[in-house]
Amino acid sequence: MSSSLVESPRTFGDMMRMPVRFYKTIGEDIYAHRSTNELTSLLLKIYLYAGFINFNLLVCGELVFFYKSIQDFETVRLAIAVAPCIGFSLVADFKQLTMVVYKKTLIQLLDELEEMHPKTLLAQKAYKMADFERTMKRVISIFTFLCLAYTTTFTLYPAVKATVKYNFLGYKTFDRNFGFLIWFPYDATSRNWVYWITYWDIAHGAYLAGIAFLCADLLLVVVITQLCMHFSYISGRLEAHPCDPDQDEENLSFLCSMIKYHDKCLTLCEHVNNMYSFSLLLNFLMASMQICFIAFQVTESTIEVILIYCIFLMTSMVQVFLVCYYGDALIAASERVGDAAYNQNWFQCSKRYCIMLKLMIMRSQKPAMIRPPTFPPISLVTYMKVISMSFQFFALLKTTYYRD
């Protein structure tokens, strides 16, 4: 048989490929500490900082535009149109800030997960890694497509529309419009070269925001997938253990190894909680308002605007659902450890073994979870709460708008 047909084990790097590659396109190198090329690392860092300075200047322009628009009732609609983009930008900014502040924690987390990753094909089959990876890849593909579709549509639609009208429909002027409502301290549409420089500057800012927003969630998906895989493996090993009463030393040795393994997984979950809890709180609050403002745009705009904002709406709702789904999966996987421990034939074992098993069951009753401040632990219940908040904001906005 040809060696090329032999199945090779999947590495941790294979699972991390998508977030790592996308992050590098904006200058963020997660594994910069392993790089041997200092010049490349420096250039990437300069590119990243320059990109975020440019992006934040554009966000300031959006904020100024929003402020000017709410001064007059006639332009309030424009403020509502730009509000979701501001929310998206601020969340992207905060997610990137979180990655910077918790960089050491992130490196430690990824290094430990890589060390724990099953290395051989036999081990990976025991961990049922293929099943976890298959689900993860589908989720990542769908969310990546939606997130990039949103930024691409908003960015390119005005130029494509103007090009079609000018070159194919016989219009005498080229409409110099932008996909995002931004205030500039200069006339950005006065000259052709000024317009195109500004246009591609905005395009880069939009791409950077989309990648920063996307990759933080892709990292979360990869990490929680790994943790769920480890919890599932612990559950399977506990349930399958025969608990032979004549082999007490082997039973105790096995249980000690499982307790240490379980404790390490719970410690890594705490790292994830520390990294993501506050940024996800902001994410959910902003998502509630984003969904509200987008829904208002969808109900009050032309067909072409509705189509564009529908992509944005789907992206926002899928993103919240994605985070809540994986938060729920983490809770369920960690709780199953206690159930698996109880399902053993522990009544045949020594008193010492039973006490240790009891402590493990008690610890598993406090499941691993991500706990945003003032918010319930992230689960599918959280998703319903976010959607409920969005509807309340939407109803309030509609009532206020039409009353005035």
Q: How many domains in all?
A: 1
Give unreliable regions as ranges: none
Measure the end-to-end span.
77 Å
The biggest sheet amounts to: none
Tell me the quaternary state: single chain
Structural class: mainly alpha
Mean pLDDT: 91
Helix content: over 70%
Please indicate the percent range of residues in DSSP E strands (runs of 2 or more): under 5%
SS field, number of helical segments: 12
Q: Provide the gyration radius in Å.
A: 25 Å
According to DSSP, the number of beta strands is: 0
Order of helices and strands: HHHHHHHHHHHH
Shape: elongated
Description:
Interacts with Orco. Complexes exist early in the endomembrane system in olfactory sensory neurons (OSNs), coupling these complexes to the conserved ciliary trafficking pathway. This is Odorant receptor. One of its GO terms (molecular function) is odorant binding. The protein has helices at 12-15, 17-24, 38-69, 76-101, 103-116, 121-126, 129-167, 192-240, 248-300, 303-342, 351-364, 380-403. The mean pLDDT is 91. Helix 5 packs across helix 9 (248-300) and helix 9 packs parallel to helix 11 (351-364). The relative contact order is 0.11. With 404 residues, the protein is mainly α. The longest helix has 53 residues, at 248-300. It is built from 12 helices and no strands.
Defining traits:
Odorant receptor, mainly alpha, receptor, odorant binding, olfactory receptor activity, olfaction
